[in-house]
From TrEMBL:
Family matches, as Pfam families: SKI (PF01202)
An example Gene Ontology CC term for this record: cytoplasm
GO molecular function, one term: gluconokinase activity
InterPro entries tied to this protein: P-loop_NTPase, Shikimate/glucono_kinase, Therm_gnt_kin
Protein name in UniProt: Gluconokinase
E.C. no: 2.7.1.12
Keywords assigned by UniProt, alphabetized: ATP-binding, Kinase, Nucleotide-binding, Transferase
A biological process term (GO) from this entry: carbohydrate metabolic process
Source organism per UniProt: Pelagovum pacificum
Reactions it catalyzes: D-gluconate + ATP = 6-phospho-D-gluconate + ADP + H(+)
Amino acid sequence: MGTAGSGKSTLGELLADGLGATFLEGDSFHPKENVDHMAKGLPLTDEMRWPWLDRLGSAAAEVRETGPVVLACSALKRVYRDRLRDNLPGLVTVYPEAPKELVAERMGNRKGHFMPLSLLDSQFATLEVPGGDEDVLVVSARQTPPEMADEVLARLLGS
């Protein structure tokens, strides 16, 4: 979970490799209307997110029937994370915690992504940082992606 540019996709790919899991990129499950909306610099509404979250959760549940799955998904609000947990019991959520300045720098360096830098403020305004009552692994996104992945894998696998 996390804002655009927090490193969740890169981390997810590394975790999938480390766990021998299938990786699902949440952005690829957005309907064209959502992508077009964001590309215009407009944030998504909850109503636009629900079908996307359900599609992603269903796809992950289907993959999970045959093996482990890692998915990258913003899941900025707790209700979004709860919705995914409803579809995926036992879901482990990882939050690469990244300060706005770091995310802005990363987004500015990205090429070919539909999410414009102008949506960064709305991402952080929407973000509900997980509380202590949520089962979320928090890692610092100031680390390199391999360092984050190593930390998460060690915590998941108990080593």
